[in-house]
Amino acid sequence: MVEQVDPSPRRSVGPGPCLGLLALLLVVWYPLSFALTASSALERLISYGGPAMLLLALRVGVTGLGIAAGRALWGLGPHARRLTLWFLALASLATLLTAVTPYFPSNRTRAGKRLAVSAILLHNAAWAVVVARSRRLEDLSPASSAVRADR
After folding, report:
1. Which pLDDT score, from 0 to 100, does residue 151 have?
2. Residue 4 CA neighbour count, 13 Å, CB half
3. Residues 6+ apart with CB under 8 A from 143
4. In this predicted model, what pLDDT tens digit does every residue of 107-147 receive, in sequence order?
5. Alpha carbon of 31 to those of 35, 76, 145: distances in Å?
6. What are 52-57's contacts with CB under 8 Å, separation 24+?
7. Which whole-number Å values give the CA distances from 122 to 87, 88, 91, 145, in the listed order?
8. Which of 30, 51, 109, 126 has its CA 20 to 30 A from that of 135?
9. How far, in Å, CA of 9 to CA of 117, rounded?
10. CA 134, CA 2: separation in Å to the nearest integer?
11. The pTM is what?
12. Cβ contacts of residue 73 below 8 Å, gap of 6+?
């Protein structure tokens, strides 16, 4: 008996271990981390006024984008790569802004704060490389599917 071979390319099932871990970080860890930071900063936010509220709004938006990116990664959605890269870039910006402004409390020394910010930026950059090079996300972008449709 001859086996039938499906000529269509097989799509990976699930995000895989690396992207799965990142999806969990985006959906669980980052929102929890932000919630704890924001709850400890509420007293200061009232006294600092507008600029502190803008920084809080930026962090809320970035956290929401991270949740959307995590869900897209988990389901291997068509915009998962783009959403995740945007999240990582904006999360890095929010981390820098939070570190250089006095609005969010920190018990770190100046050197400790530099080290923590550097570690976070390196962490985000490493994840950006993983996402950018991921083969599971390679064929999911709308542009690549449009090119395949033309062939």
Report:
1. 45
2. 2
3. none
4. 778 888 889 899 999 999 999 999 999 888 875 555 554 44
5. 6, 21, 32
6. 52/101, 52/103, 55/94, 55/97, 55/98, 55/101, 55/103, 55/104, 56/103
7. 14, 11, 12, 32
8. 30
9. 42
10. 35
11. 0.77
12. 15, 19, 20, 22, 23, 26, 80, 84, 137
Both tokens assigned to 31: 């929102």
Write the DSSP string, 71-136.
HHHHTT-TTHHHHHHHHHHHHHHHHHHHHHSSSS-----HHHHHHHHHHHHHHHHHHHHHHHH-ST
Q: Which residue has the tokens 């799965």?
A: 20
Which tokens belong to 50?
């507008």
Q: Coil, helix or strand for 4?
A: coil
* Unique residue bearing structure tokens 């900063």: 41
- 134 contacts 74 by C-beta, under 8 angstroms: no
Residues in the chain, total: 151
